Amino acid sequence: DVKVTQSSRYLVKRTGEKVFLECVQDMDHENMFWYRQDPGLGLRLIYFSYDVKMKEKGDIPEGYSVSREKKERFSLILESASTNQTSMYLCASSAEDRESYFGPGTRLTVT
Amino acid sequence: GQNIDQPTEMTATEGAIVQINCTYQTSGFNGLFWYQQHAGEAPTFLSYNVLDGLEEKGRFSSFLSRSKGYSYLLLKELQMKDSASYLCAVRDGGFNKFYFGSGTKLNVKP
């Protein structure tokens, strides 16, 4: 079975803190994605990566950065957390031309 | 731009059949996916269409018409555990990007 894990299920951070969200997949997938999910807005793509050290902006990259130093790991970084970044963050991975597998999600609250 | 529309919420009765529609307008197209998401959980893959027509998988079927920018997910013999949100997603033609609709919350009543 494909397994996508995320470092935390729940996280509470203060405004201005630097936040790291980690995602690891164990199926040697080329593609990895970070989404945020908000009520009424659905899943919105923040960044994706199609290879090690390669990244592409999604629809809402502002305020975020990513890192992919190893194929299995894709990190999302909030340089200076703000309250409007309170959300559910979902990581996903996929092989070429195949469906995505999602991690369990991290519910981030910024106070 | 990318525009994917689904109804916000639907209600159906246990044992019945329900059809969830999805219309899309995207700059590129390389497949349409349906996912199921139970409250508080991650989405899980249900079905995939890249060519026109119907794909059947047990109680779940999905249909695609590329010329109309239209898909539907058909759920037969509804069970209480089918109460969940159903997400329609289109993969961009040029990249491995996925665009998701806001999801349809299905309530199955006894």
Q: Any overview of this molecule?
A:
The complex is a heterodimer of chains A (111) and B (110). Chain A has 111 residues and is mainly beta. Chain A is built from no helices and eleven strands. Chain A has strands spanning 4-6, 10-13, 19-25, 31-38, 42-51, 54-57, 64-70, 73-78, 87-94, 101-102, 106-110. In chain A, strands 2, 4, 5, 6, 9, 10 and 11 form a seven-stranded mixed β-sheet that branches. In chain A, strands 1-3-8-7 form a four-stranded antiparallel β-sheet, with no helix packed on it. The mean pLDDT of chain A is 94. With 110 residues, chain B is mainly beta. Chain B has no helices and eleven strands. Chain B is globular. Chain A binds chain B through residues 31, 33, 35, 40-45, 48, 50, 56, 58-59, 90, 94, 96-97, 99-105, and chain B through 2, 30-31, 33, 41-45, 48, 87, 89, 95-103.
Give a short summary of the structure.
By secondary structure, chain A is mainly β. Chain A is built from no helices and 11 strands.
Which characteristics define this entry?
heterodimer; A: 111 residues; mainly beta; 7-stranded mixed β-sheet; 4-stranded antiparallel β-sheet; 11 strands; B: 110 residues; 5-stranded antiparallel β-sheet; 0% helix; 56% strand; globular
Approximately how much helix is present in the residues of chain B? under 10%
The Rg value of chain A, from CA coordinates, equals 13 Å
Distance N terminus to C terminus of chain A? 37 Å
Number of helices, where a helix is a run of at least 4 consecutive DSSP H or I residues of chain B:
0
% residues in beta strands of chain A: over 45%
Low-confidence stretches of chain B: none
Output the structural class of chain B: mainly beta
For the largest beta-sheet of chain B, the strand count, sense and barrel status come to: 6 strands, mixed
Give a count of the beta strands of chain A, DSSP E runs of length 2 or more.
11
N to C succession of SSEs of chain B = EEEEEEEEEEE
Separation, N- and C-terminal Cα atoms of chain B: 41 Å
Identify the overall geometry of chain B.
globular
Low-confidence stretches of chain A: none
Return the structural class of chain A. Answer: mainly beta
| Rg measurement of chain B, Å | 13 Å
From N to C, what is the helix and strand string of chain A?
A: EEEEEEEEEEE
By DSSP (H or I, 4+ residues per run), the number of helices of chain A equals: 0
| Global morphology of chain A | globular
Of all chain pairs, the largest interface belongs to: A-B, 25 and 21 residues
